[in-house]
Amino acid sequence: xxxxxxxxxxxxxxxxxxxxxxxxxxxxxxxxxxxxxxxxxxxxxxxxxxxxxxxxxxxxxxxxxxxxxxxxxxxxxxxxxxxxxxxxxxxxxxxxxxxxxxxxxxxxxxxxxxxxxxxxxxxxxxxxxxxxxxxxxxxxxxxxxxxxxxxxxxxxxxxxxxxxxxxxxxxxxxxxxxxxxxxxxxxxxxxxxxxxxxxxxxxxxxxxxxxxxxxxxxxxxxxxxxxxxxxxxxxxxxxxxxxxxxxxxxxxxxxxxxxxxxxxxxxxxx
Length: 270
Ligand SMILES: Nc1ncnc2c1ncn2[C@@H]1O[C@H](COP(=O)(O)OP(=O)(O)OP(=O)(O)O)[C@@H](O)[C@H]1O
Ligand SMILES: [Mg+2]
Known about the structure:
By secondary structure, this protein is α/β, with parallel strands linked by helices. The chain has a domain at about 1-80 and about 210-265: 3-Layer(aba) Sandwich (Rossmann fold). Helix content is about 40%, strand content about 25%. The strands form two sheets. It has a six-stranded mixed beta sheet with strand order 6-7-8-3-9-10, sandwiched between helices. A hairpin with a 2-residue loop joins strand 4 and strand 5 (about 75). Helix 2 (about 100-110) runs parallel beside helix 4 and helix 3 packs across helix 4 (about 145-155). The relative contact order is 0.15. The mean pLDDT is about 90. The structure holds adenosine-5'-triphosphate and magnesium ion.
Protein backbone atom coordinates (compact mmCIF):
# COMPACT_ATOMS: atom_id res chain seq x y z
CA UNK A 1 0.00 0.00 0.00
CA UNK A 2 2.89 2.31 0.81
CA UNK A 3 4.65 1.63 -2.45
CA UNK A 4 4.57 3.65 -5.61
CA UNK A 5 3.14 1.73 -8.52
CA UNK A 6 5.92 0.72 -10.88
CA UNK A 7 8.59 1.51 -8.33
CA UNK A 8 9.52 -0.77 -5.50
CA UNK A 9 10.99 1.88 -3.23
CA UNK A 10 9.54 1.98 0.20
CA UNK A 11 7.81 5.16 1.31
CA UNK A 12 8.99 6.21 4.77
CA UNK A 13 7.13 9.50 5.17
CA UNK A 14 3.80 10.18 3.53
CA UNK A 15 1.61 13.26 3.76
CA UNK A 16 -1.80 12.64 2.28
CA UNK A 17 -4.18 15.53 1.53
CA UNK A 18 -2.77 17.49 4.46
CA UNK A 19 -4.19 20.90 5.40
CA UNK A 20 -2.86 23.14 8.13
CA UNK A 21 -4.65 26.26 9.28
CA UNK A 22 -3.68 28.67 12.02
CA UNK A 23 -6.98 30.13 13.11
CA UNK A 24 -8.89 30.65 9.90
CA UNK A 25 -5.81 31.09 7.74
CA UNK A 26 -4.78 28.06 5.69
CA UNK A 27 -0.98 27.80 5.49
CA UNK A 28 -0.86 24.33 3.89
CA UNK A 29 -3.47 23.27 1.37
CA UNK A 30 -4.03 19.67 0.29
CA UNK A 31 -0.38 18.71 0.44
CA UNK A 32 0.70 15.32 -0.87
CA UNK A 33 4.28 14.17 -0.45
CA UNK A 34 6.09 10.83 -0.36
CA UNK A 35 9.63 10.57 0.99
CA UNK A 36 11.38 7.32 0.11
CA UNK A 37 13.50 5.21 2.42
CA UNK A 38 17.11 6.39 2.29
CA UNK A 39 16.29 9.48 0.29
CA UNK A 40 17.59 13.03 0.74
CA UNK A 41 14.53 15.13 -0.02
CA UNK A 42 14.60 18.90 0.23
CA UNK A 43 11.72 21.33 0.62
CA UNK A 44 12.78 24.49 -1.15
CA UNK A 45 10.79 27.70 -1.36
CA UNK A 46 10.62 31.36 -0.40
CA UNK A 47 10.28 32.56 3.16
CA UNK A 48 6.83 31.96 4.61
CA UNK A 49 5.77 29.30 2.06
CA UNK A 50 5.28 26.69 4.80
CA UNK A 51 8.48 24.61 4.86
CA UNK A 52 8.97 24.64 8.61
CA UNK A 53 5.28 23.96 9.09
CA UNK A 54 5.58 20.77 7.03
CA UNK A 55 8.47 19.57 9.21
CA UNK A 56 6.51 20.41 12.35
CA UNK A 57 3.55 18.42 11.04
CA UNK A 58 5.77 15.40 10.38
CA UNK A 59 7.42 15.60 13.81
CA UNK A 60 4.08 16.13 15.55
CA UNK A 61 4.87 19.60 16.89
CA UNK A 62 1.80 20.77 14.96
CA UNK A 63 -1.47 18.93 14.43
CA UNK A 64 -2.81 18.64 10.90
CA UNK A 65 -6.13 20.40 10.35
CA UNK A 66 -7.05 17.70 7.85
CA UNK A 67 -5.38 14.77 6.11
CA UNK A 68 -3.20 11.87 7.17
CA UNK A 69 0.49 11.54 8.01
CA UNK A 70 2.26 8.18 7.81
CA UNK A 71 5.65 7.22 9.19
CA UNK A 72 7.03 3.90 8.00
CA UNK A 73 3.57 2.79 6.90
CA UNK A 74 1.89 3.67 10.18
CA UNK A 75 -0.77 6.36 10.52
CA UNK A 76 0.75 8.75 13.09
CA UNK A 77 -1.66 11.64 12.57
CA UNK A 78 -2.84 11.39 16.18
CA UNK A 79 0.44 10.17 17.68
CA UNK A 80 2.08 12.79 19.95
CA UNK A 81 5.52 14.18 19.04
CA UNK A 82 7.28 12.34 21.86
CA UNK A 83 6.15 8.99 20.43
CA UNK A 84 7.06 9.67 16.80
CA UNK A 85 10.27 8.07 15.60
CA UNK A 86 11.82 11.19 14.09
CA UNK A 87 14.40 13.72 15.19
CA UNK A 88 14.63 17.36 14.22
CA UNK A 89 17.78 19.43 13.87
CA UNK A 90 16.87 23.08 14.17
CA UNK A 91 18.56 26.07 12.64
CA UNK A 92 19.90 27.36 15.94
CA UNK A 93 21.01 23.81 16.97
CA UNK A 94 19.08 24.22 20.26
CA UNK A 95 21.90 22.71 22.34
CA UNK A 96 21.65 22.89 26.12
CA UNK A 97 24.23 25.52 27.10
CA UNK A 98 24.98 23.97 30.50
CA UNK A 99 25.56 20.47 29.12
CA UNK A 100 28.76 19.15 27.55
CA UNK A 101 28.99 17.61 24.09
CA UNK A 102 28.62 14.15 25.59
CA UNK A 103 25.69 15.15 27.78
CA UNK A 104 23.91 16.94 24.94
CA UNK A 105 24.19 13.86 22.74
CA UNK A 106 23.10 11.64 25.64
CA UNK A 107 20.02 13.73 26.41
CA UNK A 108 17.50 11.96 24.19
CA UNK A 109 18.89 8.53 25.09
CA UNK A 110 18.41 9.32 28.77
CA UNK A 111 14.83 10.46 28.16
CA UNK A 112 14.16 7.19 26.36
CA UNK A 113 15.84 5.29 29.23
CA UNK A 114 18.28 3.51 26.92
CA UNK A 115 20.57 1.34 29.12
CA UNK A 116 23.85 3.05 29.97
CA UNK A 117 26.16 0.59 28.19
CA UNK A 118 24.18 0.78 24.96
CA UNK A 119 23.93 4.58 25.24
CA UNK A 120 27.70 4.92 25.67
CA UNK A 121 28.33 2.74 22.65
CA UNK A 122 26.00 4.81 20.48
CA UNK A 123 27.39 8.14 21.69
CA UNK A 124 30.97 7.04 21.04
CA UNK A 125 30.08 5.94 17.54
CA UNK A 126 28.15 9.15 16.81
CA UNK A 127 31.00 11.29 18.12
CA UNK A 128 33.47 9.58 15.87
CA UNK A 129 31.11 9.84 12.86
CA UNK A 130 30.87 13.61 13.23
CA UNK A 131 34.58 13.84 14.13
CA UNK A 132 34.21 15.33 17.59
CA UNK A 133 36.66 13.03 19.36
CA UNK A 134 38.38 14.99 22.10
CA UNK A 135 35.53 17.49 22.43
CA UNK A 136 33.34 15.34 24.69
CA UNK A 137 33.73 17.51 27.79
CA UNK A 138 33.32 20.95 26.19
CA UNK A 139 30.30 23.16 26.69
CA UNK A 140 28.62 24.59 23.56
CA UNK A 141 30.14 28.01 24.35
CA UNK A 142 33.57 26.40 24.04
CA UNK A 143 32.86 25.08 20.54
CA UNK A 144 32.89 26.75 17.13
CA UNK A 145 29.68 27.08 15.10
CA UNK A 146 30.61 24.09 12.96
CA UNK A 147 31.41 21.98 16.00
CA UNK A 148 28.09 22.90 17.61
CA UNK A 149 26.43 21.92 14.37
CA UNK A 150 28.09 18.51 14.61
CA UNK A 151 26.87 18.04 18.17
CA UNK A 152 23.33 18.75 16.95
CA UNK A 153 23.74 16.20 14.15
CA UNK A 154 25.18 13.60 16.53
CA UNK A 155 22.25 14.17 18.86
CA UNK A 156 19.92 13.56 15.94
CA UNK A 157 21.53 10.37 14.65
CA UNK A 158 22.19 8.74 18.01
CA UNK A 159 18.50 7.92 18.43
CA UNK A 160 18.70 5.51 15.48
CA UNK A 161 15.47 6.83 14.00
CA UNK A 162 15.06 6.29 10.32
CA UNK A 163 14.03 9.85 9.55
CA UNK A 164 15.91 13.02 10.33
CA UNK A 165 14.23 16.39 9.81
CA UNK A 166 16.63 19.27 9.22
CA UNK A 167 15.37 22.85 9.24
CA UNK A 168 17.87 25.32 7.76
CA UNK A 169 20.47 23.44 9.74
CA UNK A 170 23.44 25.01 7.98
CA UNK A 171 22.03 28.50 7.51
CA UNK A 172 23.93 30.18 10.31
CA UNK A 173 27.37 28.93 9.28
CA UNK A 174 29.79 31.02 7.26
CA UNK A 175 30.08 30.13 3.61
CA UNK A 176 33.25 28.05 3.78
CA UNK A 177 32.08 26.02 6.75
CA UNK A 178 28.66 25.64 5.16
CA UNK A 179 30.19 24.08 2.04
CA UNK A 180 32.25 21.68 4.17
CA UNK A 181 29.25 20.68 6.25
CA UNK A 182 27.07 20.21 3.16
CA UNK A 183 29.61 17.71 1.87
CA UNK A 184 29.96 15.92 5.20
CA UNK A 185 26.25 15.81 5.89
CA UNK A 186 25.55 14.26 2.50
CA UNK A 187 28.30 11.67 3.05
CA UNK A 188 26.94 10.84 6.49
CA UNK A 189 23.40 10.45 5.16
CA UNK A 190 24.59 8.03 2.48
CA UNK A 191 26.76 6.10 4.90
CA UNK A 192 24.00 5.67 7.49
CA UNK A 193 21.36 5.13 4.78
CA UNK A 194 19.15 7.55 6.65
CA UNK A 195 16.19 9.41 5.27
CA UNK A 196 16.59 13.19 5.36
CA UNK A 197 13.73 15.63 5.00
CA UNK A 198 15.67 18.84 4.63
CA UNK A 199 14.49 22.43 4.53
CA UNK A 200 16.37 25.32 2.99
CA UNK A 201 15.80 28.45 0.99
CA UNK A 202 19.29 28.20 -0.46
CA UNK A 203 18.82 27.02 -4.06
CA UNK A 204 22.45 26.05 -4.59
CA UNK A 205 22.46 23.99 -1.40
CA UNK A 206 19.26 22.19 -2.40
CA UNK A 207 20.47 21.41 -5.92
CA UNK A 208 23.84 20.19 -4.67
CA UNK A 209 22.76 17.94 -1.82
CA UNK A 210 19.35 16.48 -2.65
CA UNK A 211 18.17 13.32 -4.35
CA UNK A 212 14.87 15.09 -4.99
CA UNK A 213 13.60 18.60 -4.41
CA UNK A 214 10.03 19.70 -3.74
CA UNK A 215 9.58 23.34 -4.73
CA UNK A 216 6.99 25.01 -2.53
CA UNK A 217 4.98 28.16 -3.04
CA UNK A 218 2.31 29.43 -0.66
CA UNK A 219 1.70 26.08 1.05
CA UNK A 220 1.68 23.96 -2.08
CA UNK A 221 4.24 21.83 -3.87
CA UNK A 222 4.54 23.24 -7.37
CA UNK A 223 7.15 20.80 -8.67
CA UNK A 224 8.98 17.76 -7.38
CA UNK A 225 11.89 16.02 -9.07
CA UNK A 226 15.64 15.48 -9.14
CA UNK A 227 17.82 18.58 -9.12
CA UNK A 228 18.69 18.09 -12.80
CA UNK A 229 15.03 17.63 -13.77
CA UNK A 230 14.05 20.80 -11.98
CA UNK A 231 16.98 22.79 -13.31
CA UNK A 232 16.57 21.56 -16.88
CA UNK A 233 12.77 21.51 -17.00
CA UNK A 234 11.23 24.03 -14.63
CA UNK A 235 7.50 23.51 -14.72
CA UNK A 236 6.46 27.17 -14.73
CA UNK A 237 7.80 30.70 -14.50
CA UNK A 238 7.83 30.66 -10.72
CA UNK A 239 10.18 27.65 -10.56
CA UNK A 240 12.20 29.00 -13.43
CA UNK A 241 12.88 32.36 -11.85
CA UNK A 242 13.30 30.87 -8.40
CA UNK A 243 15.99 28.48 -9.63
CA UNK A 244 17.74 30.44 -12.34
CA UNK A 245 17.92 33.94 -10.92
CA UNK A 246 20.87 33.13 -8.71
CA UNK A 247 24.39 31.86 -9.01
CA UNK A 248 24.57 28.09 -8.63
CA UNK A 249 28.31 27.71 -8.31
CA UNK A 250 28.38 24.51 -6.32
CA UNK A 251 25.61 22.79 -8.27
CA UNK A 252 27.21 23.53 -11.62
CA UNK A 253 30.59 22.34 -10.39
CA UNK A 254 29.33 19.06 -8.90
CA UNK A 255 27.08 18.41 -11.90
CA UNK A 256 30.06 18.73 -14.22
CA UNK A 257 32.00 16.28 -12.05
CA UNK A 258 29.07 13.86 -11.98
CA UNK A 259 28.66 13.95 -15.72
CA UNK A 260 32.38 13.55 -16.28
CA UNK A 261 32.26 10.52 -13.97
CA UNK A 262 29.41 8.99 -15.95
CA UNK A 263 31.22 9.47 -19.24
CA UNK A 264 34.31 7.82 -17.84
CA UNK A 265 32.22 4.84 -16.76
CA UNK A 266 30.69 4.53 -20.21
CA UNK A 267 34.11 4.55 -21.82
CA UNK A 268 35.35 1.99 -19.35
CA UNK A 269 37.76 4.34 -17.65
CA UNK A 270 38.26 4.40 -13.90
N1 LIG B 1 1.97 29.21 15.13
C1 LIG B 1 1.62 29.97 14.09
N2 LIG B 1 0.53 30.77 14.15
C2 LIG B 1 0.15 31.54 13.10
N3 LIG B 1 0.80 31.56 11.91
C3 LIG B 1 1.89 30.78 11.79
C4 LIG B 1 2.36 29.95 12.87
N4 LIG B 1 3.47 29.29 12.44
C5 LIG B 1 3.67 29.69 11.17
N5 LIG B 1 2.74 30.58 10.78
C6 LIG B 1 2.65 31.21 9.45
O1 LIG B 1 2.65 30.20 8.48
C7 LIG B 1 3.36 30.61 7.31
C8 LIG B 1 4.41 29.59 6.98
O2 LIG B 1 5.40 29.60 7.99
P1 LIG B 1 6.68 28.65 7.96
O3 LIG B 1 7.43 28.91 9.19
O4 LIG B 1 6.24 27.27 7.71
O5 LIG B 1 7.44 29.22 6.68
P2 LIG B 1 8.86 28.83 6.09
O6 LIG B 1 8.66 28.39 4.69
O7 LIG B 1 9.56 27.90 7.00
O8 LIG B 1 9.61 30.25 6.06
P3 LIG B 1 11.16 30.63 6.38
O9 LIG B 1 11.92 30.28 5.13
O10 LIG B 1 11.10 32.11 6.60
O11 LIG B 1 11.60 29.87 7.58
C9 LIG B 1 3.90 32.00 7.62
O12 LIG B 1 3.04 32.94 7.03
C10 LIG B 1 3.84 32.08 9.14
O13 LIG B 1 3.65 33.39 9.56
MG1 LIG C 1 11.24 28.04 8.25
